[in-house]
Amino acid sequence: MKFSLARKLKLNIYIVVVCFVSTYVARAQEFLPNADFGAFAGASYYMGDINPRGQFYRPGLALGAVAKFNFTEFHSVRLNAFWGQLKGDDLDFNNEYQQIRAHNFETTLLDVHAGYEFNFIPYIVKRNSTAHTAYVFAAAGYSLILASTEEVATNHVTIPFGVGFKYRFSRSVTLGGEWGWRKTFNDTIDGLGNPGGELSVKPAHNNDWYSFAGVYLTFRIFEKGYKCPGIPEPRTFK
Fold first, then answer.
1. Closest alpha carbon to 182 in 23, 48, 15, 26
2. Is 110 exposed, middle or buried (0-12, 13-18, 19+ CB in 10 A)?
3. Taking the CB of residue 196, how many other CB atoms lie within 10 A of it?
4. Cα dist. 167→134, 142, 174, 187 in Å?
5. What is the pLDDT of residue 238?
């Protein structure tokens, strides 16, 4: 009796494992890697010593190029290059200290990053269908200062991260929206250094951040199609 129950238990476990693996393989066969390329337009803004908390403070024009390499319906590698403007002025705030300091700046920069994007819903489109999903991303980046009213503004490493939503309304076109933040590793964008000097505060605790928010349109290329599960190679469809 014990032997029979053990055999049944092993058989049930085997069936569950086989079903899980088969389902995973079938889903994997449905998707072939592809790439999306397009353009971004929106706003960029600064947060730091002048503007410590306000979102979308003095937004400037932002433009960019977007590239996404989709390896599965959940996972993508992204390469982005954004051009943006950052502005700040102490006189925009009622704080007495800022009114006395009366500092202002304008900076134009090129933000580039490479990172990872995760879709919350399987983002796979078959023939005559659409797809949509929210996603999150994290990356490693670099900011090149193109022009600034502050001589101390320098190029620097960043950690970009953010959220977005994308909707693919045809076989090759996607419309998306994204809001991302950049953690910087210096305190010179606004020309106002750490109050106690650079040696008194660790770089990870500086006050300068900046953000990009906007919409993008991409076109899918390098897409051969989706494999038909259960049908041997090479039959595919789009």
1. 48
2. middle
3. 8
4. 9, 28, 6, 37
5. 40
The answer to whether the beta carbons of residues 215 and 30 sit under 8 Å apart is no
Was domain 31-237 assigned CATH 3.40.50.2000? Answer: no
DSSP category for residue 152: T
Select, from the ranges 96-100, 134-138, 192-196, 233-237, the one with the highest average predicted confidence (pLDDT).
134-138
Per DSSP, the three-state class of 212 is strand
Does residue 95 have a pLDDT over 60? yes
The alpha helices in the chain, defined as continuous H runs, are: 2-30, 96-101
Place of tokens 């306000």: 54
Residue with tokens 């032997």: 3
DSSP letter at 200?
Answer: T
How far apart are alpha carbons 146 and 63 in whole angstroms?
14
DSSP string, 121-135: S-----TT--EEEEE
Closest CA to 111 of 136, 79, 69: 79
Average pLDDT over the chain reads 81
Domain locations in the chain as residue ranges: 31-237
Q: Is the bond preceding residue 234 a cis peptide, omega within 30 degrees?
A: yes
